[in-house]
Request: fold
Amino acid sequence: MPEPATLPTLEDALALGLRKTEYELVCEKQGGPPNLLELAMYSLLWSEHCAYKHSKKLLRTLPTEGPHVVMGPGENAGAVDVGGGMVCAFKVESHNHPSAVEPFQGAATGVGGILRDIFAIGARPIAVLDSLRFGEPTGARARYLLEGAVSGIAHYGNSIGVPTIGGEVYFEAPYEQNCLVNAMALGLARREQLVRSAAAGPGNLLVLFGASTGRDGIGGASVLASAELGGEGEQDKRPTVQVGDPFEEKKLLECSLELLEHGLIVSLQDLGAAGLTSSASEMASKGEVGIDIDVARVPLREPGMEPFEVMVSESQERMLCVVEPASLAAVLALCEKWEVNGAAIGTVTDSGQMRVLSGGELLGSMPVRALVDDCPLYDLEPQKPAQPIYEPPEASLPAGASAAETLLGLLASPNIASRRPLFEHYDPIVQSRTVRRPEQADAAVLALPDGSALAVSIDGNGRRVAADPYRGTIAGVLECAANLACVGAEPLGTTNNLNFGNPEKPHIAWQLSESVRGLGDACRALQAPIVGGNVSLYNEGATSGPIYPTPVIGMVGRLPDARLAAGLGFARSGDEIALVGAFAPSLAASELAKLRGEALPDGLPEIDIATVRAAQLAVRDAVRSGELASAHDIAEGGLAVALAECCLAGGLGAEIILGEERAEADRESQLFGEGSGGFVVSGESRALQRLGESVAVRRLGVVGAQALRIGMGAEADDEAIEVSLAELAGAHAALAELFS
Amino acid sequence: MKFGVLQFPGSCDEVDALSAARRVGDAELIWHGERDLGGAEAIIVPGGFSYGDYLRAGAIARFSPAMESVIEFAGNGGLVLGICNGFQVLCEAHLLPGALLPNTNRHFTFRQLELEVLYSGGPFTGACALGERLSIPAKHAWGRYYADPETLAAMDRGGQLVLRYAPGENFNGSLHDIAGVCNERGNVFGLMPHPEHAVDELIGGSADGLKIFESMRMSVEGARA
Reply:
C-alpha cells in the first residue's frame, strides 16, 4: 500500500466531484483516508451517473412489474415476453454530454453502449432507434451537432449490422448548447438464453474480453455526465469522449453470443461508464461476493498506464464475464476465433471486498457494499417556479397567414418536416425483419419467427413537458401507445430516459418529480411497466439555462399478425376518412403556438387517460381485424397536419368537410390544435361504421385526387384549404437542405 | 443446388443472403478462414464491412483464405455473386472489372430503388425479361461504379452491363447508371443493391430480388442436367 504521505486530501476528493460529507463517509467506510486509486473508484461510483443519487428515490415510485416482464430494472437491459418462448430485451440510454462535446463519436459510442447492454443479457440486437434534440437548425452549432450525431449513429449502426428502424428529433432553442442524443436498442433471445450480471462462485475467474484498454474516456462519467457543461473549456474535455469501433463491437457481439450458446459463461456485464471499476463492482454487488482484479493482466493499448487509469478507462467494446476455471481454455479459444483480446484478469472471492492488485502487490481494497450501495441518496427540494423559466421562441410564421399558408408553414417546420434526409443515412432493413420502415407507419414493425410482430415507438415532446411536466409526460407516454395502436400492437413494456437540468435547483427538481409522477401514472394505466432506463441530469449550460425537461419514452408492443400492421398513408381512392376518439384539440404549447412565437402556457388541459386508452384499444382492434386501410395518430400540428401526412405517405389527396365553426379561434384549434387521443383512419364505410360501435367516430371525407382540400362546410367556403400534393411535399421536404 | 455464403467477421447481410438463397436451394455459411468451400455450387460474397473496411471497402477481404478459394472456384467457371461489400471485394480481387468509389452525395444512403435489366442472357438474370424493372433496396457509402472508357465500351459490347439504375434512381453517381456488372465469362456478377432484401413481399414490399437467386439455381441445375 502507498505511504500515507502520498494519500490524497479532501481537496482532491472535491476536485473529483465528491462532496465533503461524501468524502468523510468514504473515510469512515474505509477505516481511514482512501488512497488515490480508491478515491478515484469511489468518486466514479458515487457520481450522479453511476449512483443515481438525486433520482433513485423517485425512480422507486415507478411501476416495474407486469405479466409480460421477464427482466426488470437493475440488469443491463429489461426484457419482456413476446410469446413463442422468445423475449425482447430493450433499453434507452443517453449520450448527451459527450455528444455536445464531440457529436460524431459521442453518438456513435452511445449506440455502441446501448447495443452492449442488449447482448450483455444474452439477446441478439435487432434494432436501434434514436431520439435527438438540437437547437433551431438555422444555427450553425445545431447543424454541426445534428450532422455529427446522425453520421455517428449511422457509422456505428450500419457497420455493425443492426437496423436503425425509427426515431425522432426536435429542434428547440433550449437545446442549443446542450443537445440530447438518446439511443434505444432492442434485442431478441430465447427465454432460457438470458444471462444475468451477478458474479457467483468464489474461485471462478473474471475474464475481460474485447478491445484493449487505453487512456480514452478517463473520468467520462464523473467529469462529463455529472456536471454542467461550461461555456468554455469544451476542447479540454475532448480526451474524455470515447472513440468507437463498430467492427470491434461486431466481433465482440458475435463472440459473446457464441460463448453463451456454448454455455461457457456464468454471468456477463458490459463495460460502460467508469469502465472496469463500475462493471466489476456491480457484478460483485449483485452476487454478494468479492472480486480481486490484477491490473497487470489487463491487455493495454499503450504502455505506462497507471493502475487507476486501467481501472477507470472507458475504452469502448469491452465485456467482462465470470467463467468456471474448467471453461477458461474454451472461452479464450472463442476469443481467438473472433480475434478479440481475452484475458483472465481476476477471481471471484468470498471476501466481500473489491481488491485491486498489480502482480502480487495490493493497490487498493474497498468493501463492495460501500462502493456500490452506500452512496448517500439525496432528497429533491422541488419548488414550482414563480416566473417562466424559458424565453418565448422566435416567431417564424407571418401574422395573418391564411389557413393554407399555416398548414404549409407547419409542414415545413423543423419539428414536423419529413425526417427522410436524416433516416436515409441509416440501414433500416438488415436482418430481414423490418415490416414497416420509417415514414410508412406510426411505429416501426419487426416480424417475429412465429408470424407475429414487435412494434416500437420512441417519443418525448419537451416543450409540452416544459409547459406542464405532469400532463406533458403523460401525453408523451400516450403518444407512444397511440403509435403502437396504429399498427395494431398492445404495449408490453416501457423504457425511459429522463433528460433534465440540474436537480439541485428547486425548479428542475419540480420538473423532474412531476414528470416521474406522470410517467408512473400513465404507465400504470396502460399496463406498460418500466423495465429499464436511464437518467441524464445537469443538462444545462452555465449561461444558457436548462434544456426543456425531456423524458424520452420508448415503448415495445406486440401484434398477433405482422401482415396486418397498418400503414399511415391513405391507400385507396374512395375510402372514407374519419377522426376517431374524443379528440379535444388545444393550441396550448402546440407547434403553431411555437411558430407564432408564443410563450409557454402555465399548464396543459387535463387528460382523461381512460378515454384515450379506450380509443387506442378500439383503433388497435380495428387494425388487427384488417378492416382499416390506414391509421395515424394526431400529434404535432394537429388534424390538418395529420391529414397531410396521410396524403403524402399514400400519394393520394383527400376531400374533407370539417363542419362550420363560428369563431375563428375554434377553427384554428380544430385544424391545428394538439392533444391526446385522436386518430385519422381510412377504410370502407362499413369498417368505419363498425369502429363507431366502440368509440367516437366522426366522418371527415373521402380519399382521392391529387390535392388536400379541407372545407369548413359554409356555403361560400372562403376559409377552405386547398393544397396540391406537390405543394405539400415541397413544404414537407424542408430539412433536405440540411444535408445537401 | 447448394449455395455457399462467405462470412467475414464484419459481414452484416450474410444471414439475409443465406435465408434468401435457402428460398431456392440449400445454403451454408463459409467462415473467412476456411479454404474448403464445402461443396458449394455457387458462392455469395455478402454485404457488410468485411474486416471493418477502415482502409478501403473490400481491400483486406480479398486476401482471406476463403477468397483465395473463391478466386480459384471462379477461375473454374463457378458462379460467384457479390452483393454490395461483396461487389467491392470482387472488384478488389480483380474478378470483376472497375472499382467502387465513394458516393457523390458523400454519405451512406439507404433507398428502395428501381433497377432495369440490361442483359438477361446470363446465369444471374436468366429469370428476368430484358428491360424488366426490379424494385430492390440499396444501402452503401461506396457505390459509385467506375471503369475507364475502353473497359466500359468492351463491357457494353460483351453484355457485361447487367443492371442499371432506372432514370432518377442513381444516388451514388455511378457511370452510365451502372448498378451491376459481370465478368467477361459471365460467371461472376456484382451489384450494389441488395437482392437478398427483396425476397418477401411482407418485408420490404418486393420479392423481385428472388429472381437473381432463382436465375442462379436455373443456371446451376441446367448445367448439371
